[in-house]
Amino acid sequence: MTNMIRAEVITIGDEILFGQITDTNTQWIGTELTNIGIRVTRKSSVGDQADAILQIFHEAHQRADVIIITGGLGPTKDDITKKTLCTYFGVGMVRNAEALALVTSFFEKRGRAMTDLNRAQADLPANALYIQNDWGTAPGMWFEHDKRIYVSLPGVPFEMKHLMSNRILPKLREHFKTPVIKHKMIRTVGIGESFLAERIEAWEDALPESIKLAYLPSFGGVKLRLTTTGNDEATLDQQLADQVEKVLPLIEKNVFGFDEDELEVVVGRLLQERNLTLGIAESCTGGFVSSQITKIPGSSAYFWGSVVSYSNVVKVNQLGVDPSTLDQFGAVSEETVRQMAEGVRKALGTNVGIATSGIAGPDGGTPDKPVGTIWIACSTEQRTVARLLRLGQYRDQNIQLTSTYVLNMLREELLSMNAEV
Is residue 420's pLDDT more than 70? Predict the structure, then answer.
Protein backbone atom coordinates (compact mmCIF):
# COMPACT_ATOMS: atom_id res chain seq x y z
CA MET A 1 0.00 0.00 0.00
CA THR A 2 1.32 3.46 -0.86
CA ASN A 3 2.47 5.46 2.16
CA MET A 4 0.55 8.65 2.77
CA ILE A 5 2.44 11.82 1.93
CA ARG A 6 1.73 14.39 4.65
CA ALA A 7 1.74 18.13 4.11
CA GLU A 8 1.57 21.14 6.38
CA VAL A 9 0.61 24.63 5.22
CA ILE A 10 2.05 27.66 7.03
CA THR A 11 0.80 31.18 6.39
CA ILE A 12 3.03 34.05 7.51
CA GLY A 13 1.88 37.59 8.27
CA ASP A 14 0.56 39.68 11.15
CA GLU A 15 -2.30 40.82 8.94
CA ILE A 16 -3.74 37.30 8.97
CA LEU A 17 -3.61 37.01 12.76
CA PHE A 18 -5.07 40.50 13.19
CA GLY A 19 -7.99 39.52 10.97
CA GLN A 20 -7.21 42.26 8.46
CA ILE A 21 -7.23 39.79 5.56
CA THR A 22 -8.92 36.42 5.15
CA ASP A 23 -6.66 33.43 4.55
CA THR A 24 -8.08 31.87 1.41
CA ASN A 25 -4.73 30.39 0.40
CA THR A 26 -4.82 27.49 2.83
CA GLN A 27 -8.18 26.21 1.66
CA TRP A 28 -7.15 26.34 -1.99
CA ILE A 29 -3.78 24.70 -1.35
CA GLY A 30 -5.42 21.93 0.68
CA THR A 31 -7.80 21.14 -2.17
CA GLU A 32 -5.05 21.07 -4.78
CA LEU A 33 -2.69 18.94 -2.72
CA THR A 34 -5.47 16.46 -1.98
CA ASN A 35 -6.19 16.19 -5.69
CA ILE A 36 -2.65 14.95 -6.34
CA GLY A 37 -2.62 12.48 -3.46
CA ILE A 38 -0.92 14.56 -0.75
CA ARG A 39 -2.84 14.79 2.51
CA VAL A 40 -2.80 18.08 4.43
CA THR A 41 -2.63 17.12 8.09
CA ARG A 42 -2.17 20.53 9.67
CA LYS A 43 -2.31 24.23 8.89
CA SER A 44 -0.76 27.04 10.93
CA SER A 45 -0.63 30.82 10.86
CA VAL A 46 2.24 32.78 12.39
CA GLY A 47 3.07 36.47 12.62
CA ASP A 48 6.10 38.35 11.35
CA GLN A 49 8.41 37.30 14.18
CA ALA A 50 11.51 35.29 13.34
CA ASP A 51 11.51 33.21 16.54
CA ALA A 52 7.89 32.17 16.03
CA ILE A 53 8.50 31.32 12.36
CA LEU A 54 11.58 29.23 13.22
CA GLN A 55 9.64 27.35 15.87
CA ILE A 56 6.82 26.47 13.50
CA PHE A 57 9.35 25.33 10.87
CA HIS A 58 10.98 22.97 13.37
CA GLU A 59 7.60 21.61 14.46
CA ALA A 60 6.42 21.09 10.89
CA HIS A 61 9.63 19.20 10.10
CA GLN A 62 8.65 16.59 12.69
CA ARG A 63 5.14 16.14 11.29
CA ALA A 64 5.17 16.53 7.54
CA ASP A 65 6.89 15.44 4.33
CA VAL A 66 5.97 18.68 2.53
CA ILE A 67 5.88 22.13 4.12
CA ILE A 68 4.15 24.80 2.02
CA ILE A 69 4.82 28.38 3.18
CA THR A 70 2.98 31.46 1.92
CA GLY A 71 3.61 35.12 2.68
CA GLY A 72 6.38 37.35 3.91
CA LEU A 73 8.22 37.64 0.58
CA GLY A 74 7.62 41.32 -0.16
CA PRO A 75 10.34 43.98 -0.49
CA THR A 76 9.77 45.73 2.86
CA LYS A 77 11.51 45.14 6.20
CA ASP A 78 8.48 43.43 7.76
CA ASP A 79 8.71 40.65 5.14
CA ILE A 80 11.23 38.37 6.81
CA THR A 81 10.50 34.92 5.39
CA LYS A 82 13.64 34.69 3.21
CA LYS A 83 15.94 35.82 6.04
CA THR A 84 14.31 33.38 8.44
CA LEU A 85 14.69 30.54 5.93
CA CYS A 86 18.43 31.39 5.73
CA THR A 87 18.67 31.11 9.51
CA TYR A 88 16.68 27.86 9.55
CA PHE A 89 18.82 26.19 6.88
CA GLY A 90 22.09 27.76 8.07
CA VAL A 91 22.91 29.39 4.75
CA GLY A 92 23.57 32.89 3.43
CA MET A 93 21.69 34.99 0.91
CA VAL A 94 22.80 35.20 -2.73
CA ARG A 95 21.49 37.28 -5.60
CA ASN A 96 19.93 35.12 -8.29
CA ALA A 97 20.67 36.41 -11.79
CA GLU A 98 17.53 34.88 -13.30
CA ALA A 99 15.34 36.42 -10.60
CA LEU A 100 17.03 39.81 -11.01
CA ALA A 101 16.44 39.77 -14.76
CA LEU A 102 12.75 39.06 -14.22
CA VAL A 103 12.35 41.83 -11.64
CA THR A 104 14.20 44.29 -13.90
CA SER A 105 11.97 43.39 -16.84
CA PHE A 106 8.88 43.73 -14.66
CA PHE A 107 9.70 47.35 -13.81
CA GLU A 108 10.95 48.29 -17.27
CA LYS A 109 7.70 47.16 -18.91
CA ARG A 110 5.77 49.41 -16.54
CA GLY A 111 8.10 52.39 -16.99
CA ARG A 112 8.93 52.46 -13.29
CA ALA A 113 12.30 53.01 -11.61
CA MET A 114 13.73 50.20 -9.48
CA THR A 115 14.95 50.72 -5.93
CA ASP A 116 17.45 48.69 -3.92
CA LEU A 117 14.51 47.09 -2.13
CA ASN A 118 13.15 45.94 -5.48
CA ARG A 119 16.50 44.47 -6.48
CA ALA A 120 16.63 42.64 -3.16
CA GLN A 121 13.63 40.63 -4.35
CA ALA A 122 16.20 38.63 -6.33
CA ASP A 123 18.17 37.70 -3.18
CA LEU A 124 17.47 34.08 -2.25
CA PRO A 125 18.76 31.62 0.36
CA ALA A 126 21.82 29.89 -1.11
CA ASN A 127 20.15 26.44 -1.07
CA ALA A 128 16.95 27.56 -2.78
CA LEU A 129 15.86 26.34 -6.18
CA TYR A 130 14.44 29.46 -7.84
CA ILE A 131 10.84 29.10 -9.08
CA GLN A 132 9.92 31.83 -11.57
CA ASN A 133 6.89 33.97 -10.72
CA ASP A 134 5.43 35.19 -14.02
CA TRP A 135 2.83 37.38 -12.32
CA GLY A 136 4.85 39.29 -9.72
CA THR A 137 8.28 40.12 -8.33
CA ALA A 138 8.31 37.80 -5.31
CA PRO A 139 9.96 34.51 -6.35
CA GLY A 140 8.88 31.02 -5.48
CA MET A 141 11.48 28.82 -3.77
CA TRP A 142 11.90 25.06 -3.50
CA PHE A 143 14.13 23.47 -0.83
CA GLU A 144 15.09 19.85 -0.23
CA HIS A 145 16.29 19.39 3.34
CA ASP A 146 16.60 16.26 5.48
CA LYS A 147 14.19 14.25 3.29
CA ARG A 148 11.62 17.03 3.46
CA ILE A 149 10.38 19.41 0.77
CA TYR A 150 9.91 23.06 1.69
CA VAL A 151 8.13 25.40 -0.73
CA SER A 152 7.97 29.14 -0.14
CA LEU A 153 5.42 31.13 -2.14
CA PRO A 154 4.13 34.72 -2.23
CA GLY A 155 0.99 35.37 -0.21
CA VAL A 156 -0.86 37.22 -2.99
CA PRO A 157 -3.49 34.61 -3.95
CA PHE A 158 -3.37 34.93 -7.75
CA GLU A 159 0.45 34.76 -7.74
CA MET A 160 0.45 31.80 -5.36
CA LYS A 161 -2.16 29.89 -7.37
CA HIS A 162 -0.28 30.42 -10.64
CA LEU A 163 2.98 29.15 -9.13
CA MET A 164 1.32 26.17 -7.46
CA SER A 165 -0.67 25.13 -10.52
CA ASN A 166 2.08 25.53 -13.11
CA ARG A 167 5.30 24.88 -11.20
CA ILE A 168 4.89 23.29 -7.79
CA LEU A 169 2.12 20.70 -8.15
CA PRO A 170 3.71 19.00 -11.20
CA LYS A 171 7.06 18.98 -9.39
CA LEU A 172 5.54 17.45 -6.25
CA ARG A 173 3.80 14.72 -8.25
CA GLU A 174 7.05 13.82 -9.94
CA HIS A 175 9.05 13.89 -6.72
CA PHE A 176 6.72 11.74 -4.62
CA LYS A 177 5.11 9.54 -7.31
CA THR A 178 1.86 10.23 -5.49
CA PRO A 179 -1.22 7.99 -5.48
CA VAL A 180 -4.52 9.14 -6.91
CA ILE A 181 -7.09 10.54 -4.48
CA LYS A 182 -10.56 10.83 -5.99
CA HIS A 183 -13.56 12.64 -4.57
CA LYS A 184 -17.18 12.58 -5.60
CA MET A 185 -19.45 15.23 -4.13
CA ILE A 186 -23.21 14.77 -3.95
CA ARG A 187 -24.86 18.14 -3.29
CA THR A 188 -28.19 18.16 -1.49
CA VAL A 189 -30.60 20.93 -0.48
CA GLY A 190 -33.61 21.17 1.79
CA ILE A 191 -32.65 18.36 4.17
CA GLY A 192 -30.77 18.53 7.47
CA GLU A 193 -27.67 16.50 8.26
CA SER A 194 -29.31 14.19 10.81
CA PHE A 195 -32.32 13.48 8.57
CA LEU A 196 -30.01 12.77 5.67
CA ALA A 197 -27.88 10.43 7.77
CA GLU A 198 -30.94 8.46 8.87
CA ARG A 199 -32.17 8.11 5.30
CA ILE A 200 -28.88 6.73 3.97
CA GLU A 201 -27.77 4.80 7.06
CA ALA A 202 -27.99 1.33 5.51
CA TRP A 203 -26.12 2.47 2.40
CA GLU A 204 -23.44 4.12 4.51
CA ASP A 205 -22.97 1.01 6.64
CA ALA A 206 -22.49 -1.06 3.48
CA LEU A 207 -19.77 1.17 1.99
CA PRO A 208 -16.52 -0.70 1.28
CA GLU A 209 -13.61 0.16 3.58
CA SER A 210 -11.78 1.78 0.69
CA ILE A 211 -14.42 4.52 0.37
CA LYS A 212 -14.83 7.14 3.08
CA LEU A 213 -17.93 9.33 3.51
CA ALA A 214 -17.98 12.84 4.98
CA TYR A 215 -20.97 15.08 5.72
CA LEU A 216 -20.31 18.75 4.93
CA PRO A 217 -23.25 20.92 6.09
CA SER A 218 -23.84 24.32 4.52
CA PHE A 219 -26.68 26.87 4.35
CA GLY A 220 -29.82 24.96 3.47
CA GLY A 221 -28.19 21.66 2.58
CA VAL A 222 -25.46 19.09 3.01
CA LYS A 223 -22.66 17.97 0.73
CA LEU A 224 -21.85 14.25 0.81
CA ARG A 225 -18.19 13.69 -0.07
CA LEU A 226 -17.05 10.23 -1.11
CA THR A 227 -13.28 9.71 -1.13
CA THR A 228 -11.13 6.82 -2.28
CA THR A 229 -7.42 6.33 -2.93
CA GLY A 230 -5.51 4.10 -5.33
CA ASN A 231 -3.34 4.02 -8.41
CA ASP A 232 -5.80 3.64 -11.28
CA GLU A 233 -7.99 6.71 -11.82
CA ALA A 234 -10.54 4.98 -14.06
CA THR A 235 -11.12 2.21 -11.51
CA LEU A 236 -11.58 4.72 -8.70
CA ASP A 237 -14.05 6.76 -10.76
CA GLN A 238 -16.10 3.65 -11.45
CA GLN A 239 -16.14 2.65 -7.77
CA LEU A 240 -17.46 6.08 -6.80
CA ALA A 241 -20.01 6.10 -9.63
CA ASP A 242 -21.33 2.72 -8.44
CA GLN A 243 -21.93 4.09 -4.94
CA VAL A 244 -23.64 7.22 -6.26
CA GLU A 245 -25.98 5.04 -8.29
CA LYS A 246 -26.88 3.08 -5.14
CA VAL A 247 -27.60 6.10 -2.93
CA LEU A 248 -29.42 8.35 -5.40
CA PRO A 249 -32.80 6.58 -5.18
CA LEU A 250 -32.81 7.29 -1.43
CA ILE A 251 -32.22 11.05 -1.72
CA GLU A 252 -32.88 11.97 -5.34
CA LYS A 253 -35.50 14.60 -4.49
CA ASN A 254 -32.93 16.56 -2.49
CA VAL A 255 -29.96 16.18 -4.86
CA PHE A 256 -29.47 19.23 -7.05
CA GLY A 257 -26.00 18.54 -8.41
CA PHE A 258 -22.57 17.00 -8.10
CA ASP A 259 -18.98 18.08 -7.48
CA GLU A 260 -18.64 21.83 -8.16
CA ASP A 261 -22.30 22.46 -9.07
CA GLU A 262 -23.85 25.47 -7.33
CA LEU A 263 -27.61 25.82 -6.95
CA GLU A 264 -27.73 29.07 -8.93
CA VAL A 265 -25.75 27.43 -11.75
CA VAL A 266 -28.14 24.48 -11.89
CA VAL A 267 -31.15 26.82 -11.92
CA GLY A 268 -29.64 28.84 -14.75
CA ARG A 269 -28.98 25.70 -16.73
CA LEU A 270 -32.59 24.57 -16.33
CA LEU A 271 -33.90 27.97 -17.42
CA GLN A 272 -31.75 27.89 -20.54
CA GLU A 273 -32.68 24.31 -21.38
CA ARG A 274 -36.37 25.25 -21.21
CA ASN A 275 -35.91 28.59 -22.97
CA LEU A 276 -37.41 30.44 -20.01
CA THR A 277 -36.77 33.88 -18.52
CA LEU A 278 -36.75 34.89 -14.85
CA GLY A 279 -37.76 37.96 -12.85
CA ILE A 280 -37.28 38.34 -9.10
CA ALA A 281 -39.18 40.32 -6.46
CA GLU A 282 -37.33 40.64 -3.17
CA SER A 283 -38.33 42.19 0.11
CA CYS A 284 -36.52 40.67 3.11
CA THR A 285 -33.56 39.44 1.03
CA GLY A 286 -32.86 42.92 -0.31
CA GLY A 287 -31.36 41.84 -3.64
CA PHE A 288 -29.33 38.88 -2.36
CA VAL A 289 -31.17 36.36 -4.55
CA SER A 290 -30.55 38.49 -7.63
CA SER A 291 -26.89 38.77 -6.68
CA GLN A 292 -26.62 34.99 -6.53
CA ILE A 293 -28.15 34.66 -9.98
CA THR A 294 -26.06 37.40 -11.62
CA LYS A 295 -22.71 36.19 -10.29
CA ILE A 296 -22.97 33.42 -12.88
CA PRO A 297 -21.43 34.37 -16.26
CA GLY A 298 -24.03 34.33 -19.02
CA SER A 299 -26.99 34.84 -16.68
CA SER A 300 -28.24 37.67 -18.92
CA ALA A 301 -29.52 34.95 -21.25
CA TYR A 302 -32.33 34.12 -18.82
CA PHE A 303 -32.41 36.74 -16.04
CA TRP A 304 -34.26 39.90 -17.03
CA GLY A 305 -34.25 41.87 -13.79
CA SER A 306 -35.57 42.33 -10.27
CA VAL A 307 -37.58 44.63 -8.05
CA VAL A 308 -36.38 45.12 -4.46
CA SER A 309 -39.73 46.00 -2.96
CA TYR A 310 -38.73 46.76 0.61
CA SER A 311 -41.55 49.28 0.89
CA ASN A 312 -45.23 48.43 0.59
CA VAL A 313 -45.53 51.40 -1.76
CA VAL A 314 -43.19 49.63 -4.19
CA LYS A 315 -45.08 46.38 -3.77
CA VAL A 316 -48.25 48.16 -4.83
CA ASN A 317 -46.93 50.53 -7.51
CA GLN A 318 -44.30 48.35 -9.20
CA LEU A 319 -45.55 44.82 -8.53
CA GLY A 320 -49.29 45.37 -8.54
CA VAL A 321 -49.91 43.95 -5.06
CA ASP A 322 -53.49 44.74 -4.03
CA PRO A 323 -53.51 47.29 -1.16
CA SER A 324 -56.38 45.38 0.43
CA THR A 325 -54.17 42.28 0.57
CA LEU A 326 -51.55 44.20 2.51
CA ASP A 327 -54.20 45.65 4.83
CA GLN A 328 -55.83 42.30 5.51
CA PHE A 329 -52.87 39.90 5.58
CA GLY A 330 -49.75 42.06 5.86
CA ALA A 331 -46.57 42.14 3.82
CA VAL A 332 -45.36 38.87 5.33
CA SER A 333 -48.07 36.54 4.12
CA GLU A 334 -48.81 33.88 1.56
CA GLU A 335 -51.28 36.16 -0.23
CA THR A 336 -48.76 38.99 -0.61
CA VAL A 337 -45.81 36.89 -1.71
CA ARG A 338 -47.96 35.16 -4.33
CA GLN A 339 -48.96 38.52 -5.77
CA MET A 340 -45.33 39.67 -5.69
CA ALA A 341 -44.18 36.64 -7.72
CA GLU A 342 -47.04 37.04 -10.19
CA GLY A 343 -46.55 40.79 -10.33
CA VAL A 344 -42.84 40.72 -11.14
CA ARG A 345 -43.43 38.12 -13.85
CA LYS A 346 -46.06 40.33 -15.48
CA ALA A 347 -44.20 43.62 -14.92
CA LEU A 348 -40.98 42.35 -16.50
CA GLY A 349 -42.60 40.12 -19.09
CA THR A 350 -40.80 36.97 -17.96
CA ASN A 351 -41.95 33.37 -18.00
CA VAL A 352 -41.14 32.83 -14.32
CA GLY A 353 -41.21 35.05 -11.23
CA ILE A 354 -39.96 34.30 -7.73
CA ALA A 355 -40.47 36.35 -4.59
CA THR A 356 -39.42 36.66 -0.94
CA SER A 357 -41.09 38.50 1.94
CA GLY A 358 -40.39 38.05 5.61
CA ILE A 359 -38.90 39.22 8.88
CA ALA A 360 -35.14 38.73 8.66
CA GLY A 361 -34.45 40.23 12.09
CA PRO A 362 -33.06 40.90 14.55
CA ASP A 363 -36.17 42.98 15.33
CA GLY A 364 -39.55 43.50 13.72
CA GLY A 365 -41.13 40.26 14.89
CA THR A 366 -44.52 39.88 16.55
CA PRO A 367 -46.09 37.03 18.54
CA ASP A 368 -47.94 35.89 15.40
CA LYS A 369 -44.99 36.48 13.07
CA PRO A 370 -41.71 36.13 14.97
CA VAL A 371 -38.30 36.88 13.50
CA GLY A 372 -37.49 34.20 10.93
CA THR A 373 -41.05 34.05 9.53
CA ILE A 374 -40.56 34.19 5.76
CA TRP A 375 -42.75 33.44 2.76
CA ILE A 376 -41.36 32.50 -0.65
CA ALA A 377 -43.20 31.99 -3.93
CA CYS A 378 -42.67 30.91 -7.52
CA SER A 379 -45.03 31.88 -10.33
CA THR A 380 -45.09 30.40 -13.83
CA GLU A 381 -47.65 30.74 -16.62
CA GLN A 382 -49.23 27.50 -15.35
CA ARG A 383 -49.44 28.09 -11.58
CA THR A 384 -48.15 29.92 -8.50
CA VAL A 385 -46.88 28.09 -5.43
CA ALA A 386 -45.87 29.51 -2.04
CA ARG A 387 -44.14 28.14 1.02
CA LEU A 388 -43.70 29.27 4.62
CA LEU A 389 -40.21 29.18 6.15
CA ARG A 390 -39.66 29.28 9.89
CA LEU A 391 -36.03 30.23 10.34
CA GLY A 392 -33.93 31.55 13.23
CA GLN A 393 -32.95 34.83 14.87
CA TYR A 394 -29.91 35.79 12.82
CA ARG A 395 -30.39 38.19 9.94
CA ASP A 396 -27.50 37.13 7.68
CA GLN A 397 -28.34 33.45 8.03
CA ASN A 398 -32.01 34.10 7.34
CA ILE A 399 -31.19 36.01 4.16
CA GLN A 400 -28.84 33.30 2.89
CA LEU A 401 -31.19 30.46 3.78
CA THR A 402 -34.13 32.22 2.14
CA SER A 403 -32.11 32.63 -1.03
CA THR A 404 -31.24 28.92 -1.03
CA TYR A 405 -34.81 27.83 -0.42
CA VAL A 406 -36.40 30.08 -3.03
CA LEU A 407 -33.86 29.00 -5.65
CA ASN A 408 -34.56 25.39 -4.78
CA MET A 409 -38.30 26.05 -5.10
CA LEU A 410 -37.57 27.45 -8.55
CA ARG A 411 -35.50 24.35 -9.40
CA GLU A 412 -38.32 22.04 -8.36
CA GLU A 413 -40.86 23.98 -10.43
CA LEU A 414 -38.61 23.95 -13.49
CA LEU A 415 -38.11 20.19 -13.20
CA SER A 416 -41.87 19.71 -13.06
CA MET A 417 -42.35 21.58 -16.35
CA ASN A 418 -42.25 19.24 -19.31
CA ALA A 419 -43.34 21.51 -22.13
CA GLU A 420 -40.84 24.04 -23.44
CA VAL A 421 -42.25 27.56 -23.63
Answer: no
